[in-house]
Request: fold
Amino acid sequence: MSKIERLDQHTINSIAAGEVIDRPASVVKELVDNALDAGAETIRVEIRAGGVREIRVRDDGTGMSPADAALSLESHTTSKLRHVEDLDNLTSMGFRGEALASIAAVSRLSLVTREIGSEAGVRLEVEGGQRVFEGPAGAPEGTMISVKDLFYNTPARYKFLKSDMAEAAQVQERLCQLALTRPDVSFLLEKDGRTVLHSPGNGELLSAIFAVFGADIASAMHPVAYEEPPIHIRGFMSKPDYSRNNRARQVFIVNGRVIRSRILQAAVDEACTTYFMKGRHPVLVFHLNVPHAFVDVNVHPQKSEVRFWDDRKVFSAVFHAVKALLGDDRADRVQETVETPADLQRSAPVQQTFDLTKAAPAPSGIIRDDRPQQTEPLPPSASAPSAPVDARRTDEPLTRPEPKDGERKIADLIGSKILGQYLNTYIVLQIGSRLVLIDQHAAHERILYERLLKHPLKAADAGRQPLLLPVEVEVTPAEAAYIDENLSALADMGFEAEPFGPGTYVLRSAPDLKQQVDVQQFFSELIAALSENGEREDRSFHDAFALKACKSAIKASQPMSVSEIEHLLEDLQSLDNPYHCPHGRPITVEFTKTEIEKRFGRIV
Ligand SMILES: Nc1ncnc2c1ncn2[C@@H]1O[C@H](COP(=O)(O)OP(=O)(O)OP(=O)(O)O)[C@@H](O)[C@H]1O
Ligand SMILES: [Mg+2]
Reply:
């Protein structure tokens, strides 16, 4: 009796219908899903020209009998589901009996398979859904499916394909996800003859993470094991000492399927808020085990989304799993103001020249934003200082004009008394009788931002700085595709990047930004931002570049010498808008003498 059967009409009608195959990556996913369902231990995927010319998937699973092989290529024929009720207890990746038929309809497909224990195999060939060959074939146990000339007969769909490189990147991304889903299976991916992924299949998730994300990430990962019955979570996650500026490396696997889920993402974000800096995210791979009755996989034609019957329960489980890891170790907390782990390491022990922490919390209203002080009469002459700025230490309160809105300058900085640095993060000044705190991070950001706006960095402007020691940068497949497609634009900007093994590039030069910049971080963040938006070499490319340039150069949590502070004040003074950082946060916060005296009860 054949294992594969045709589904009844009622079941067919109950299954999420829709486009199954839209690009090479979805073909690969379906074929690999089938191999996994067939119990394969090794799956080898080869693609040519982004998978459009050919995708070949070979597995060492159960194989099929000749009768099953013939049926497998027809619509609604499956060995995995008999009745609609079975959907509630699904353990296989497939269930619709639809994938092979859909692929065969839009390509030239050949299938060679030999059932375990059987003498001979069979070969079937189908073109555009029409059987063109069927016959015996010598073959190893297992199945090999080759899909050539995808969409050759459906030009409308062919038109929607991106470049070969981009399609290949998607295939790789998919396969990486699958390798993380099934550490017990060895995955191999060859792109045009080049091996780009090889997971060992030793059953260890960390080994799969190593194969997919590389050594740096693997070594930053911490095991997570958490239970909030009936939900079990296990996996790995990075602590705040390794973070990324996007969530591209957060993988959620629910009952063996990689899924996208806002709920799960929100749970991680929420749990990370006080630990990770704003805009930074952990890398994580979470396997969630949820009773099948708790989750509906039948909501998306590509099965990449699920519906949980109780969102709060899964949210809570993920939230607490993350908290349990982060909360264990308070030392890992990163302050909002710390820009990068590298900054954190660089920062010297806190030198508090001025300790406001001992004061009672400020009543609301005391902290002012950028509004110029009304308390001091200032002569009009100093509104646009022409004399060189001199931030000498002096006790003499200088009088300055009241800057009008729109033409304000921080003229007051001239002659301000530098009291020191608070928490290596805020510069503490006395200006006249006012106590002024300057957020050095925000100030520096603003300075660079305005500079870059006035003199946008283009290749020629920035210049190129050869790197004495080439810098290695690890990227995702999508980012790699972006780099490959924009090599010359990047070179114009000063970045000479060369491929260096799977997922890695070496930089031989970087733009000369005249700032102390962590080139590795700058490049990877720039590429992450650009590739996410799919931007090409155009204005936004330059804007992103300029923004990243200033972001990367920010000094936060860094001790500054008096002359560095003076320099910063000088630069700050020359700005069009010295009051807000590019993100709108205030740069200065002031306390008047009256406010302080009130706090001490000297006046009422
Ligand atoms: N690599 C393989 N090894 C063994 N059997 C396979 C393989 N690929 C497909 N089959 C058989 O062919 C049938 C049809 O495959 P197909 O992918 O079209 O549907 P499905 O996997 O059952 O459901 P879905 O459409 O959700 O993927 C499967 O049910 C399975 O029995
Ligand atoms: Mg299938």
Confidence is low (pLDDT under 50) at residues 329-409.
